[in-house]
Amino acid sequence: MGCTITGCGKAAPKLVVTNDDLAHLVDTDDEWIVQRTGIRARRIAQGESATDLAVAAAEAALGIESDSAVERSGWRRPASGSKAVDPASIDLVICMTISPDAAMPSQAALVRRRLGAQRAVCFDLNAACSGCVYGLSVAESMMAAANAPGSARNPLRRALVIGVERLSRVVDWSDRSTCILFGDGAGAVLLEWSDAETGIRSTFLRNTDDIDGVLTLGAGRKDDLPPLFAALAAEQASARQSAGPAKAAPGFEKSADQAPESALDPQGFPPHIAMSGQAVFRFATAAVVEAIEEACARAGADVDEVDLIVPHQANERIIRYAAKKLGLPMERFQLSIESSANTSAASALMALTDALVQERLRVGDTAVMVGFGGGLTAGSVLFHL
């Protein structure tokens, strides 16, 4: 018995911002960004809320047809049939995010209401870019406890675990070291408690004190975006209507006054994502390897038995380093960063959806999901699909 993944979905805003577009804002170019990160484009929310993205991803995971204004895709376990899952049957909703629509009510509460999941218990979880694995681990633990013999807890048979971010609202668009890295999006997984010999087989979570503040974000964020993005959104909307090629972006000058004003909050944290790239890289490369090995060891499996590793999509170089360290070919790793960039808590769930839709991961396969990020946090989940 255990938690089986029966649905998966992702959603992204329509606005595409390429590396060449960012060259209008900061001193950078496509080659420089691709060589250092593997990123070529990212999606930026223009009017879409975190709730819009989260609900669209959740509906895709549930198999619910929708005329949502955002782009989405989804996968359902073949044995589930074609019938959509009724949101009213969901018992638990967990949203992982560092960029919610509001501090209160929680992002999960907003999603619960929009979906119509009236009986669901819901709450938010903040583990930064490790949110995907923390959320899955918490959901699995709660469901296992609720379904244990003699349990006096809330009945939990179905859970939605959703990662959603609008990082464009917490990025300093004048800082080329960070603004090139991030994007907006949402990913969702439907977990169901079943007697099948599938599901989550092990979890591993780890925290390290971020003593030097290598990855931080204050609470006093601003919601300003560069004027360039409004122009790009208008162009892309026009191009979609006419089905003709999009014109080149207008010649915006690189100007710091287009970016939000930076000022430390009372706790000393900046209102935008601040990062020491080299320190984060050192932490991440070690954390990914440890997390994969630990998940396998706890499940009694060898790393070579894993069909696909789905890592947090932070930087292609981190993933390649881990593959080399583990002696695994890159074909065993899911890469979705090229077109989505780093979407923090949403990234690994979005990548998992890609892997399932692309049939790189199939029913019967074994996979490991890995997260690492601010806190500092890291973790992994090994599951048998």
Automatic annotation (TrEMBL):
Methyltransferase found in the keyword field: no
Keyword DNA repair found: no
Biochemical pathway: Lipid metabolism
InterPro entries for this protein: ACP_syn_III_C, ACP_syn_III_N, Thiolase-like
Keywords: Fatty acid biosynthesis, Fatty acid metabolism, Lipid biosynthesis, Lipid metabolism, Multifunctional enzyme, Transferase
Domain Beta-ketoacyl-[acyl-carrier-protein] synthase III C-terminal: 296-384
Protein name (database record): 3-oxoacyl-ACP synthase
GO biological process: fatty acid biosynthetic process
Beta-ketoacyl-[acyl-carrier-protein] synthase III N-terminal domain span: 123-204
Region (Disordered): 242-263
Classification via PANTHER family: 3-OXOACYL-[ACYL-CARRIER-PROTEIN] SYNTHASE, BETA-KETOACYL-[ACYL-CARRIER-PROTEIN] SYNTHASE III, CHLOROPLASTIC
GO molecular function: 3-oxoacyl-[acyl-carrier-protein] synthase activity
Family (UniProt): Belongs to the thiolase-like superfamily. FabH family.
